Amino acid sequence: MSVWAVLAAAGRGERLGSDRPKAFARLGGRPLLAESLERLDNSGWIDAIVIAAPPDWEEPSILVAEEIAATKVSSAVTGGESRSESVRLALDEVPDEVAVVLVHDAARPLLSEDVIERVLAPLSEGWEGVVPAVPLADTVKRVDGDRVVETLSRDDLVAVQTPQAFLADALRRAVAGDVSAATDCASLVEAQGGRVKVVEGDPRLLKVTDTDDLALVESWLA
Ligand code: C5P
Description:
By secondary structure, the chain is α/β, with parallel strands linked by helices. The chain is built from seven helices and twelve strands.
């Protein structure tokens, strides 16, 4: 069974306040993109990788792949306006015969082989999608402006990360329609009636959004 990875790296990352896109912010002396790309490239589960790069950063993405001597990068496509559009554009490069697609955020550098294995395994048990999740530490409330409308039961809630694994056909159907409002791929598969399983995530899969996150992830790298 062939497994391709889509690495979503086309975000602007404005909160990092840098002159370059987030995927090219420095982490441990190299671009953030290098960390997750290297880990995907080294994974025994992954056959090939498509990168969704920010406009004009396709070539630099390929250069990053060359610098880390990655051997599985098939192409770097221009990403879209939203994350889901970037995934759709990258998915167009995945051959029809590929059975499984793993979608990962370049903004979550510390991808482990264990979590890749955890999200791939249930796809052979009848699930269309699998997401890693961690429990919520904070109480979550629904608000309307500055007014609390409802306090949600934390027991029923999890925070969902990437990598997310999908049967390729289910993911292709899911991204075919209007994807502008979706913040992850699994929600699109769910909307199509797809069965999505939750497995144990990893606190180290923190998504880098600001410079404090970069510093924290860098400390974990050391
Ligand atoms: O913006 P956010 O941090 O939620 O983005 C999550 C991931 O999706 C990041 O790795 C980012 O590069 C990617 N992304 C993308 N295309 C966009 C927006 C975000 O590939 N248009």
